[in-house]
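TA notes, week 10

Several of you asked for a full example with nothing omitted. So below is the full record: structure tokens for the whole chain, then the designed sequence directly under it. When grading your own attempts, check the secondary structure regions first.
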């Protein structure tokens, strides 16, 4: 079985960018959970949050995770809050290796495009607090941690090497 490569981490940690690089380099399909939810609902993330609320968004995330967990050979870039739902990340971990893209939260916030990110509207302190809250959650689910301060290429290289150690071709 070709286990999925699952990327978790804060908003702006580089999951989508690293995911694209991994997908290119490993010749795999990229499943970006936020992009899939937007595609399927025909709504943007801010619109979903504003009209339906966060709980409805999380329910869509969970449903998608259950579906993706039945597939293999994917690179899955998760929305930043997805691992806060045990059932969602547990489903992805069933047939995936999970990597936490960790990056200095202050630098992440300073380079973050907050538009389109409803949970990044509370300012820098709020973002740092959320990072502290979520770090133990990311750590708990991660099979490996990639420090992203060296840029997305370095992180992608590290993840491929770690993946191949556990799942050789
Ligand atoms: C969220 C992160 C977002 C998106 C939603 C909620 C979060 O994804 O899923 O706005 O709870 O951290 P990115 O991590 O891709 O920004």
């Amino acid at each position: 079985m070709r286990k999925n490569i699952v990327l978790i981490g804060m908003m702006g940690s580089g999951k989508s960018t690293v995911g694209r690089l991994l997908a290119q380099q490993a010749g795999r399909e990229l499943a970006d959970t936020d992009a899939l939810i937007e595609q399927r609902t025909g709504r943007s993330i801010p619109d979903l949050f504003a009209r339906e609320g966060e709980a409805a968004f999380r329910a869509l995330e969970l449903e998608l995770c259950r579906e993706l967990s039945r597939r293999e050979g994917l690179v899955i870039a998760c929305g930043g809050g997805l691992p806060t739902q045990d059932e969602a990340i547990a489903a992805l971990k069933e047939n995936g290796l999970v990597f936490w893209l960790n990056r200095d939260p202050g630098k992440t916030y300073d380079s973050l495009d907050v538009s389109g990110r409803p949970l990044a509207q509370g300012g820098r302190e709020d973002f740092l607090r959320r990072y502290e809250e979520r770090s133990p959650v990311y750590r708990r689910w991660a099979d490996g941690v990639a420090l992203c301060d060296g840029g997305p290429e370095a992180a992608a290289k590290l993840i491929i090497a770690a993946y191949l150690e556990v799942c050789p071709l």
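The mean pLDDT is 96. Use that as a sanity check on your answer.
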